[in-house]
Amino acid sequence: HLPGMRTPTAMIVGLVLCPCGLLLTLTGTLTPSWRQVSLLPDQPADLVLEQGIWDMCREQQSSHERRCGQADELGYFAQVPVRVAQGLMPTSLVLTLLGLVVAALGVRCWRKEPRHLLAGVAGLVLLLSGLLSLVPASWYTHELWALPAPARSTLVVGYSLVLNYLGSCLEILGGLALTLSFHHCCKE
């Protein structure tokens, strides 16, 4: 047997998907484009307002001139879906990091046998972290058109929200793959 051949496929899948999920949710959390507001009345036609959970930016599409730290005149940041996202996204990121550390200890390729129980627990933590980032992304999407915006403007989903969805799904799938390690514990 080659030393690296004993790591079960499900563990490898979990250890590939979850860091990718972390990268996507981290980017989605930090970037200010959960929602894009365009065609604002009395503004240049190519002006887009990007709203995240921490910041708001204005960008002129023609000149690519971008200014962040815009004033929140409509009370956007005070809205419950935004506040929930501000709490749950960082919590999810911390849990993902914790889950990955536990997963690394459980999968440990340099040991003869992986620690299946530890890998399974890591899977549950990563599954939970994926759900914790999926909830605010879903809620925000559900409320996207209800959140305050200038009258008669056009609202669309921003790329940060898409990244959060993808990242959450990868973490959930990776977490599920790692929870398959419990099956091995039951067999023993």
Automatic annotation (TrEMBL):
Keywords: Cell junction, Cell membrane, Membrane, Tight junction, Transmembrane, Transmembrane helix
Pfam families: PMP22_Claudin
Subcellular localization(s) per the UniProt record: Cell junction, Tight junction; Cell membrane
Residue ranges crossing the lipid bilayer per the database entry: 12-34, 84-105, 117-139, 159-182
Any GO CC annotation of this UniProt entry: plasma membrane
Bilayer disposition of the protein: Multi-pass membrane protein
Keyword hit for Transmembrane helix: yes
UniProt-recorded Gene Ontology molecular function terms: structural molecule activity
Principal subcellular localization: other
Protein origin, superkingdom: Eukaryota
Stretches assigned to coiled coil: none
InterPro entries: Claudin (IPR006187), PMP22/EMP/MP20/Claudin (IPR004031)
Family: Belongs to the claudin family.
PANTHER family: CLAUDIN (PTHR12002)
Protein name as annotated: Claudin-23
Organism: Nipponia nippon (Crested ibis)
